[in-house]
Design goal:
about 110 residues, six-stranded antiparallel β-sheet, two-stranded antiparallel ribbon, about 20% helix, single chain, alpha+beta
Length: about 110
């Protein structure tokens, strides 16, 4: 979520940008994979994919932006795990886009 503010005639105006996240899958090590809705940024349709795994002190976190496969956060995961996530993203990018456009995975 992004937050910005500006002051106008003594009034503080806040802008909050909310990213809706949808569950994709939970891996056997309890890593939860979620994805955003379609984000229209710089005339490009982007999706943020989040990887979170509970630890004793909080969470291991990794975040990647599609379609560029640009990592915006990597904390706690080993390089081997990030490589696995990269492969998972490449193999599933089309599904992330499909589900992001539909508002998540519909499981009956």
């Amino acid at each position: 979520m992004g937050v910005a503010f500006e002051q106008n005639h003594g009034i503080i105006l806040w802008e909050v940008k909310v990213i809706m996240m949808f569950q994709y899958i939970t891996l056997s090590d309890e890593t939860e994979i979620t994805h955003s809705h379609i984000l229209n940024r710089n005339e490009q349709k982007e999706i943020e994919v989040h990887f979170e795994r509970p630890t004793e002190n909080g969470f291991d976190i990794a975040r990647c932006v599609l379609p560029d496969y640009r990592w915006i956060s990597k904390e706690g995961f080993m390089d081997k795990e990030i490589d696995f996530f990269k492969q998972l993203l490449q193999n599933n990018a089309h599904l992330f886009y499909r589900y992001a456009e539909k508002g998540g995975v519909n499981i009956a």
